[in-house]
Amino acid sequence: MKSTRVRVILAVAAAGVALTACSPNQAGAAAVVSGERISSDELDRNVREYEGALTKAGVNPAQLQFPGSVTQVVLYQLVTTKKYAKVAANKGVTATEGEVEQLIARQGGMQKLEQQLLQLAVAPSQMREFLRAQVMFNKLIVGYGGGSDEAAFNRGKEQADKDAAAVKVDWNPRYGQLNTAPSEKEPGLFVAGDRFSTQVKAPAAPAPPPQQ
Q1: Which of 25-29, 37-41, 61-65, 109-113 has the lowest mean pLDDT?
Q2: Has residue 212 got a pLDDT over 60?
Q3: Could you tell me which of 173, 171, 168, 178 has the C-alpha nearest to residue 194?
Q4: Half-sphere exposure of 97 (CA within 13 A, CB side)
Q5: CB of 154 closer than 8 Å to CB of 166
Q6: What is the largest CA-CA distance in the chain?
Q7: Any idea of the CA torsion for 96, 138, 208, 113, to the nearest 10 degrees?
Q8: Is the pLDDT higher at 142 or at 27?
Q9: Residue 148 clears pLDDT 60, i.e. is over it
Q10: What are phi and psi of 58, to 5 degrees?
């Protein structure tokens, strides 16, 4: 079996992703990913669950130096999970429960992985889907790269990232507008102007990605 890596990404999406407001028939959506809604209620549930998990772990969100508010970053990860899964599925790439379990085992078990995923704003109930999407996206990268070395991985990732950037995402302006041109003045995931737009420092380096 080829040795591959799952790269967990928390960064501004590449230019080309749609940045429009939700249309009237998508009322109540925090975002719509290629026609699939993430409702505001779903987002609120994830935020509450995530904040509860941080409290239980004794972690202050400010320590994590997120590139935006907790609500924004949780929403971004929900969108990213759906984008990766859709891109891979459209190319016929799937991930079995066994492959997800193998990834978890290689990382020392779910308890260890949970600590990493909390640092990436993934609510506990979403962790398996997040990992499944990462496995699928990583398999797509390997398929595009045509090999298992670093050059092949980078080659495949470039094409997979282009596919992900082409996925249409409608963001509800209530939660902000994605920042596709980060700068020293506007380093966050979302540009200022919305009610959740308090910006913090540029993102610290993400936790070491799960290795596969």
Answers
A1: 25-29
A2: no
A3: 173
A4: 0
A5: no
A6: 49
A7: -10
A8: 142
A9: yes
A10: 70, 30
The sign of the CA dihedral 100, 102, 104, 107 is negative
C-alpha to C-alpha distances, 143 to 93, 165, 203, nearest whole angstrom:
9, 18, 30
Q: pTM for the full model?
A: 0.78
Tokens encoding 208: 């070491």
Q: Which two tokens stand for residue 27?
A: 């009322």
Residues 6+ apart with CB under 8 A from 19: 169, 171, 177, 178, 180
Q: Is 20 helix (H, G, I), strand (E, B) or coil?
A: strand
Residue 45's pLDDT is 97
Pair of tokens at residue 207: 């936790």
Residue type at position 207: A
pLDDT tens-digit series, residues 112-143: 899 899 999 999 999 999 999 999 999 999 99
Map tokens 């996206």 to a residue.
Answer: 137
Please give the structure tokens belonging to residue 101: 């379990």
In this structure, what token pair is assigned to residue 18?
């749609």
Distance CA 1, CA 175 (A): 42
Q: Is the pLDDT of residue 17 over 90?
A: no
Specify the amino acid at residue 146. Answer: G
